[in-house]
Design brief:
Layout: H1 5-15, H2 19-31, H3 35-57, H4 60-77, H5 87-105, H6 128-144, H7 148-159, H8 164-171, H9 175-197
Helix pairs in contact: 2-3, 3-4, 3-5, 4-5, 5-8, 6-9, 7-9, 8-9
Length: about 200
């Protein structure tokens, strides 16, 4: 029997889960020891975790170690997730706590502004791509100059899509503290970005 367009659209909506719903399905299957589901979850989170943890550590090797620790905990404790937050909030919270433990274990101090260096690739090609690269470098430098706590708030909000309440859960601090860090980070970026770009629009 032919399905009317309206019904077909409604059915397609039901059968195509959102990203959050899909991750929840994968997590529940992981709790049942479905390795294929876990591998899909691992692939879905590897890039996000790598970006977040590299921002924290400035050490890709340590970030990769923390990713593996984090996903091992996800594999072991997937059944403990009770749905009180998004799956991404739960996973990022695990990663944050594992990162803090890794710092202590490796005697690594949280990166200060003085310790940070930008990885800027030299390029003699003056082109649109070069301009985009320069813009990226300017933003990266401005972010690198922020204190770690403020930089992570920007990262979690604008690059990973978390709300203030979710960030507070991830880093285990009051929501008002997150909002204060966001306020100061935005203010510093508004002042610093024009200086770094020489007044040119980004």
């Amino acid at each position: 029997m032919e399905i009317p367009d309206q019904q077909r659209s409604s059915r397609a909506t039901v059968e195509t889960p959102s990203g959050d719903a899909h991750e929840l399905v994968l997590l529940r299957r992981t709790a049942e020891r479905d390795r294929e589901a876990f591998e899909s979850l691992y692939r879905a989170y590897h890039h996000r975790l790598a970006r977040f943890l590299t921002r924290m550590t400035r050490r890709p090797d340590l970030a990769e170690e923390i990713i593996n620790d984090t996903m091992w905990i996800v594999w072991q404790h997937a059944g403990d997730f009770r749905g009180s937050s998004r799956v991404s909030t739960w996973v990022m919270g695990i990663a944050y706590r594992r990162a803090l433990k890794a710092f202590r274990r490796a005697s690594v101090q949280l990166v200060s502004v003085e310790q940070e260096a930008l990885d800027v690739e030299a390029s003699g090609d003056v082109s649109a791509e070069a301009e985009r690269s320069q813009c990226h470098e300017i933003v990266a430098q401005a972010l690198a100059e922020l204190p770690l706590e403020q930089r992570l708030v920007i990262e979690l909000t604008y690059f990973l899509g978390h709300s203030c309440a979710e960030i507070a859960e991830i880093v285990d601090c009051p929501v008002n503290t997150v909002k204060t860090r966001m306020f100061h980070a935005r203010r510093k970026l508004r002042l610093r970005l024009p200086e770094l770009s020489g007044g040119a629009p980004l």
